[in-house]
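testing teh design pipeline on a random one, pls ignore if ur not involved
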């Protein structure tokens, strides 16, 4: 195992140095490649390294290297240009100003003595939140060529086949890949998280009825399901521009959704499909969708177990334990926001590792999590950022004259709409790939959109 571990570390070191070299030379497309290739593997890769070496320092180095790459890219853009930053003229859009408010609000709550968390815990939590405006700023100052966007689509198609292969093998052998890499031991040693559930992993790896949910090489099934919204948004964007072969990849993604089986991302995908039908005005897809839906209902009616049928019924009536848990935490969060409209401090809500379970309030809704911690004003800022991102994505799609830019706009529009439902039921921003890919895309689109406004040429 040590030999395998050494090989993995050498490959990762080479990959990291290559990304840093390319970014330092202004080739920020390689940062996008890092996000696409490595962040889905981030947790499982650490588990593999821990399995090989049982060394916590190596895990810290991997975590630190991720932050180095992301913040190095940000500072290269911020300070790497000629001339002092103080002498530059910034033309701020409304979304830019919202992001500055987002950043400033977090900074105030980090420095101010709000809440009872230690400064170290708040700094760790804030560091991850700061990645949202950082990735937005990077995207805001770069552009993707048509060739780079087409390469991104090709990579997504290849990766979804790999994910599908992993998940299908897990399903056939009824074995979680995470069990093979001793994920539970890693999680206990590094995150102090004890194994739970029937599979000695975590409750997220199974449904309430005990049936397994698979995660391929993502951190857990919920992260995989949320990540699939990134994939399916790109695929529907390609389908809009008459790429009929992409239907195969949409079907593959749908099967992975079933194997991971997280309800809110599945509803998010259905919302993306519905919006796609409306904007494409191609109602034959609605007929195809209804046909698949009817076949699925018939299959569930005739072949599903009684436990699964009861699970669906309880979910629909909000009496299933997981749904009740969401409802309880929403009520808890709303009461906290009502009583403390300016928030109770960083690390006081949600499911991030720096949040202490015994002291947290709520945690099953990204909007409410921000409201509990940073107050009602911050929650409104976050909602406005998402709404403006959706609007500007659609405007880029509608007004751009370059096909690849239209695809970027449409992908962003579909993705941010699709992520709204998971955001209502989870701490969606802790899924690194989903969060950072989407916010980088928001920045890239904002760059395109503002050039359309000024030059009417993109």
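output:
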């Amino acid at each position: 195992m040590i030999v395998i571990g050494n090989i993995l570390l050498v490959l990762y070191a080479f990959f990291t140095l290559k990304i840093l070299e390319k970014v330092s030379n202004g080739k920020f497309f390689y940062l996008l490649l890092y996000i696409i290739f490595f962040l889905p593997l981030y947790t499982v890769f650490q588990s593999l390294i821990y399995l090989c070496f049982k060394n916590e320092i190596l895990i810290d180095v991997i975590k630190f290297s991720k932050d180095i790459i992301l913040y190095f890219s940000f500072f290269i853009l911020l300070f790497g240009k000629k001339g002092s930053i103080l002498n530059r003229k910034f033309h701020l859009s409304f979304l830019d100003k919202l992001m500055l408010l987002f950043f400033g609000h977090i900074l105030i709550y980090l420095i101010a003595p709000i809440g009872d968390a230690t400064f170290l815990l708040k700094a760790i939590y804030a560091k991850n939140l700061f990645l949202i405006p950082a990735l937005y700023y990077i995207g805001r100052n770069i552009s993707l060529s048509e060739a780079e966007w087409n390469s991104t689509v090709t990579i997504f198609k290849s990766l979804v086949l790999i994910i599908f292969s992993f998940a299908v093998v897990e399903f056939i052998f009824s074995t979680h890949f995470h069990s093979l890499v001793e994920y539970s031991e890693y999680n206990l040693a590094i995150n102090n998280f004890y194994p739970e559930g029937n599979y000695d992993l975590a409750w997220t790896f199974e449904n309430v009825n005990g049936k397994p949910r698979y995660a391929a090489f993502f951190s857990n099934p919920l992260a995989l399901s949320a990540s699939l919204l990134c994939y399916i948004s790109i695929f529907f964007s390609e389908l809009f521009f008459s790429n009929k072969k992409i239907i195969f990849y949409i079907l593959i993604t749908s099967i992975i959704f079933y194997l991971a089986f997280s309800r809110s991302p599945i509803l998010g995908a259905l919302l993306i499909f519905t919006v796609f039908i409306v904007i494409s005005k191609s109602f034959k897809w609605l007929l195809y969708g209804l046909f698949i839906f009817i076949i699925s209902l018939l299959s569930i009616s005739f072949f599903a177990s009684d436990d699964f049928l009861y699970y669906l019924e309880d979910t629909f009536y909000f009496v299933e334990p997981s749904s009740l848990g969401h409802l309880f935490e929403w009520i808890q969060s709303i009461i906290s926001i009502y009583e403390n409209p300016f928030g109770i401090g960083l690390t006081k809500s949600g499911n991030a590792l720096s949040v202490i379970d015994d002291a947290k309030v709520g945690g099953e809704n990204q909007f409410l999590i921000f409201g509990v911690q940073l107050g009602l004003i911050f929650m409104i800022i976050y909602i406005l950022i998402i709404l403006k991102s959706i609007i500007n994505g659609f405007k880029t799609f509608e007004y751009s004259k370059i096909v690849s830019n239209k695809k970027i706009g449409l992908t962003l529009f579909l993705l941010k709409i699709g992520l709204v439902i998971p955001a209502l039921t989870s701490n969606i921003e802790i899924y690194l790939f989903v969060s950072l890919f989407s916010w980088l895309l928001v920045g890239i689109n904002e760059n395109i959109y503002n050039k359309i406004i000024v030059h009417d040429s993109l």
